[in-house]
C-alpha cells in the first residue's frame, strides 16, 4: 500500500515558544475528515509501540518532504481524544527557522500525518473507519484537512476553540449531506 496523508489544522493565533516548542493533536478520534475517513481510538498504538521497540521516532518533516526534516517530535502518544504530538522545531536548520517564522506570522496553519493503512472497515454512513495505521511522519503543512485537530504553542489551551471548530465541522457535514441528490 502507498503512503497516505491526513491533515490537521493548528488553529488561529498559533505562536511558537522561544525554544520553538509546538504541541497539540495531529489527529482526533471519531471525527470525519474531508476524505470521509474516521480514525478509531487505538489505531496508532501498535505502530507507536513498534517504533519504541526499535528505538526510532516519528519524523517531523516540512510538507511531507523526506529530504527536509525540520525538527523532532519528543512526544507522540494516543490519549482519549487523539494522537498528541509535542516537539521542537530545529531553528539551526533553514527550514526549521522558516517554519518557526511562518507559524509566528500566522502563515502556517497545519499538520499532516503520513501513514499506511493496515486495517480499515466501512461504517453504515459510508465512512472508512481506520482501525490500524502505521504512522511514518507528522509534517508541518500549508493546507490542513481535519480542521478540529490542531497544534498550539507550549502551554496554550485548546478547549474553547476546539469546541467551536467541532461545532463548525458538524454544520459543514450536515450541509454536505443536505446537498446530496
From TrEMBL:
User: Which GO BP annotation is one of this protein's?
Assistant: proteolysis
Domain Prohead serine protease residues, every copy:
20-157
Keywords (alphabetical) are:
Hydrolase, Protease, Viral release from host cell
Name by which UniProt lists this protein = Phage prohead protease, HK97 family
Which GO terms fall under molecular function for this chain's record?
Answer: peptidase activity
Q: Which residues form the signal peptide?
A: none
Q: Enumerate the Pfam families for this protein.
A: Peptidase_S78
Amino acid at each position: 500500500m502507498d503512503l497516505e496523508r491526513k491533515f490537521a489544522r493548528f488553529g488561529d493565533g498559533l505562536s511558537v515558544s522561544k525554544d520553538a516548542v509546538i504541541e497539540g493533536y495531529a489527529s482526533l478520534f471519531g471525527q470525519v475528515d474531508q476524505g470521509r475517513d474516521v480514525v478509531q481510538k487505538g489505531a496508532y498504538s501498535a505502530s507507536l509501540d513498534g517504533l519504541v521497540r526499535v528505538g526510532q521516532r516519528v519524523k517531523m518533516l516540512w510538507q511531507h518532504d523526506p529530504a527536509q526534516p525540520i525538527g523532532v517530535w519528543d512526544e507522540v502518544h494516543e490519549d482519549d481524544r487523539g494522537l498528541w504530538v509535542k516537539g521542537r522545531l530545529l531553528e539551526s536548520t533553514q527550514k526549521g527557522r522558516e517554519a518557526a517564522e511562518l507559524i509566528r506570522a500566522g502563515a502556517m496553519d497545519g499538520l499532516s500525518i503520513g501513514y499506511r493503512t493496515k486495517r480499515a472497515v466501512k461504517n453504515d454512513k459510508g465512512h472508512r473507519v481506520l482501525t490500524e495505521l502505521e504512522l511514518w511522519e507528522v509534517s508541518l503543512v500549508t493546507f490542513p484537512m481535519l480542521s478540529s485537530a490542531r497544534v498550539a504553542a507550549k502551554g496554550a489551551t485548546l478547549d474553547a476553540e476546539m469546541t467551536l471548530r467541532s461545532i463548525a465541522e458538524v454544520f459543514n457535514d450536515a450541509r454536505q449531506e443536505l446537498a446530496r441528490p
